[in-house]
Amino acid sequence: MTRLVVVALLVATLPACVGRPPEDATGEDIYLQLCANCHGATMEGAVGPALGSGSASAEQPDEFLRMTISQGRGRMPSFQSSLSDDQVGRLIRFIREEQSR
Predict the structure, then answer these.
(1) Taking a C-beta distance cutoff of 8 angstroms, is the pair 92, 35 a contact?
(2) What is the DSSP letter of 24?
(3) What single DSSP character describes residue 94?
(4) Could you give the CA distance from residue 89 to residue 95 in angstroms, rounded to a whole number?
(5) What stretches of the chain show up as alpha helix (H) in DSSP?
(6) What angle do CA 28, 32, 96 make, to 5 degrees?
(7) Is the Cβ–Cβ distance between 94 and 43 less than 8 Å?
(8) Where are the alpha helices (DSSP H) in 42-84?
(9) Cβ–Cβ < 8 Å for 71, 79
(10) Are 51 and 39 spatial neighbours (Cβ–Cβ below 8 Å)?
(11) What is the CB neighbour count within 10 angstroms for residue 67?
(12) Are 45 and 39 in contact (CB under 8 A)?
């Protein structure tokens, strides 16, 4: 993938990766608002890696996911200023439920 294509993909998906979900948003709502554009609507992977059943993230402990979501990792941005600890917990529970299907 050329550098220009990568930049274009990032610019195209960035607007969907900003903003705060409502405090009472479900894990699924949070995933769809902040994660699906990069990780796929069904966690199949896209710009970001797959998160579903059988993915590398399914083998990681919850604390790894919590740190990755909060602080970012590689090309993934930090969501520390966008999500409360409770929201991160709901998001992780949703991801784990989907991984167990």
Answers:
(1) no
(2) T
(3) H
(4) 10
(5) 3-13, 27-30, 36-39, 62-71, 85-99
(6) 40
(7) no
(8) 62-71
(9) no
(10) yes
(11) 14
(12) yes
pTM reported for the whole predicted model: 0.81
Cα 21 from Cα 27, distance rounded (Å):
10
CB atoms inside a 10 Å sphere around CB 31: 21
Structure tokens at 7: 């930049």
Arithmetic mean of pLDDT over the chain: 88
Query: Residue 15: its pLDDT value, please?
Result: 45
Q: How many Cβ atoms are within 10 Å of 83's Cβ, its own excluded?
A: 21
- Here the tokens at position 26 are 């479900």
CATH second-level architecture of 3-99?
Orthogonal Bundle (1.10)
Where do the structural domains in the chain lie, given as residue ranges? 3-99
Please give the single-letter amino acid code of residue 72. Answer: G
The span from the first CA to the last CA of the chain, in angstroms, equals 32
Provide mean pLDDT across the span 29-42: 97
